[in-house]
Amino acid sequence: MSGYPSVRYWQRLLLRAAIALSLVPCAFSVYGSQGKGQEKGKGQQAQPAQQVQQEERKDQEVPKPPQGDFTVEIYRALDEKKITTLKTKDKYKQDKAEEDVEVVLSYFNWAVSEEDYWNRQITIDTKTTDGFVIEKIVKSGFGELGYVKPGESKSQDVYRKEKVTVSGGQATATMADAEIGTSEKARFRHLLEKLVLKK
Questions:
Q1: pLDDT of 96-155, one tens digit each?
Q2: How far, in Å, CA of 150 to CA of 159, rounded?
Q3: Are 72 and 117 in contact, with CB atoms under 8 Å apart?
Q4: What φ, ψ does residue 133 adopt, rounded to 5°?
Q5: Whether the Cβ atoms of residue 69 and residue 143 lie closer than 8 Å to each other
Q6: pTM for this predicted structure
Q7: Nearest-angstrom CA–CA distance, 64 and 66
């Protein structure tokens, strides 16, 4: 017998080394995942402070309405009366013809504070007796209908009305965006006075 270890000894040694080496990546992955968990926990603790700062910035960014703003007066009246929907019968004149309609006002308020009059919206739908919408006004924030927020180029307000097109002797009615002019602003104001202020 020679002084060298047997082949079996080397096989066992290599087997142990292989097992040990295969466990090393597992140990690092467990350690890494624990570290990530700790980092996650740190991020979760810091997150509320960041959210508070973002909310403070949002409060600062909310535009303030001018003194005596008509739309703000309407919002306050709706809040005071706790109204989200109003309906009334009315007459609607289109193409020299007058028809009976139902006007439906919907009020949405997702403002965080009571003094935030920008994150509110009024939608007014004018419907025929059959239930078809022939006029839609969407007013977001304060100011008159068509108000453009400083720093923006376009109003968030929308005015749509039914447009009838005749093709091949057949008439088709579709809702189309229309420009907000003096008469549209006057109609919006008239409807709000009739629905909200005189109720």
A1: 788 999 999 999 999 988 899 999 999 999 999 999 999 999 999 999 999 998 888 999
A2: 20
A3: yes
A4: -80, 125
A5: yes
A6: 0.67
A7: 7
